[in-house]
Specification:
Blueprint (H helix, E strand, L loop, with lengths): L5 E5 L12 H13 L4 E4 L11 H15 L5 E4 L5 H10 L1 H7 L2 E5 L8 H14 L4 E5 L1 H4 L5 H10 L4 E6 L4 H13 L2 H4 L4 E4 L5 H6 L4 E4 L6 H9 L3 H6 L1 H7 L6 H9 L16 H14 L1
Parallel strand pairs: 1-2, 1-8, 2-3, 3-4, 4-5, 5-6, 6-7
Helix pairs in contact: 3-5, 5-7, 7-8, 13-15, 14-15
Length: 297
């Protein structure tokens, strides 16, 4: 199994003023990722506002990115939901496309339903069984309302060691994530199979987690600051990460991807357009981000 290390960008989806997908802006964004030495790109995840795209737009965007990147970087596709049968069916529909174009899928914990740990275990086992490519679990309790515990992650991994590549951990609970890193290192399967990758899902704590043994970062900030976040991840540069503390806080002050879209708009890469129910940052936060961009430049 190929294992993804280093810096992955959770790619935004740029929209034009009329609300349509802005492919010229997407070109500019992808060029920044390619020249910024990110290690892989996550396509149509939460940051990509995937749930607001029509099925036709979803297909068009993912195929466009595959053609544009043209094998220069590994791609990970967001495939998740809160109806296990529907997620499995979607994977079946995408089977050949996944097999040919994607290194892995990123699958978020089922949201709204608030399943038990046993429900999470059974859900992800079904996803892993269906997928032709490795699966990265995605734990983000602030969005889903449920916390995928380390012991459950290990149950899933040990039940499907050929399919579970890793977990993107965005719980913000440093002790929980460090405990998961310890459990993953202690697993007998870490020797006989590819070790479970534990990936930070929070820009602000990447260095602390990598010092504890994490395998990198799936970043929102790298949409706009790819080169610096490459240095943060690959050099474990705590000083540079500290420089971005205020900016990272602003990125998430009024929700994601509102903050990163404000930054990219102010840098001239995209229009500052989101799809409802998401809206652009308030004027006050936009001004704060503008001042912080000036400080960082």
């Amino acid at each position: 199994m190929i294992k993804l290390y280093g810096l992955g960008t959770a790619l935004i989806t740029p929209f034009a003023q009329d609300g349509s997908v802005d492919y010229e802006a997407l070109d500019r964004l992808l060029d920044q990722q390619l020249t910024g030495d990110v290690d892989y790109i996550v396509v149509l995840g939460t940051t990509g506002e995937a749930v607001t795209l029509t099925p036709e737009e979803h297909e068009e965007v993912r195929r466009y990115i595959v053609r544009y990147v043209n094998g220069r970087l590994p791609l990970v596709l967001g495939v998740g939901g809160n109806n296990t049968a529907e997620v499995v069916e979607r994977i079946h529909r995408l089977y050949e496309e996944l097999e040919s174009d994607y290194t892995a899928i990123l699958s978020v914990c089922p949201y709204y339903n608030k399943p038990s740990q046993e429900g999470l275990f059974q859900h992800f086992c079904k996803v892993a069984e269906a997928s032709p490519v490795p699966v990265i679990l995605y734990n983000v309790p602030g969005r889903t309302g449920v916390n995928l515990l380390p012991e459950t992650v290990m149950r899933i991994y040990e039940a499907q060691p050929e399919k579970i590549m890793g977990v993107k951990e965005a719980s913000g609970n440093v002790e929980q994530i460090k405990h998961l890193i310890e459990l993953a290192a202690q697993s007998p399967l870490a020797v006989s199979h590819s070790p479970l990758a534990v990936i930070s899902g929070d820009d602000g704590i990447a260095c602390e987690l990598m010092k504890a043994g994490a395998d990198g970062l799936i970043s929102v900030a790298s949409n706009a600051f790819a080169e610096d976040f490459n240095r943060i991840v690959h050099n474990n540069d705590e000083t540079l990460q500290a420089k971005y503390t205020d900016m990272v806080g602003l990125l998430f002050k009024e929700g994601n991807p509102s903050g990163i879209k404000t930054v990219l708009a102010q840098k001239g890469v995209i229009e500052n357009v989101l799809r409802l129910p998401l809206v652009p940052n308030s004027e006050a936060v936009q001004q704060q981000i503008h001042k912080e961009l000036d400080r960082l430049s």
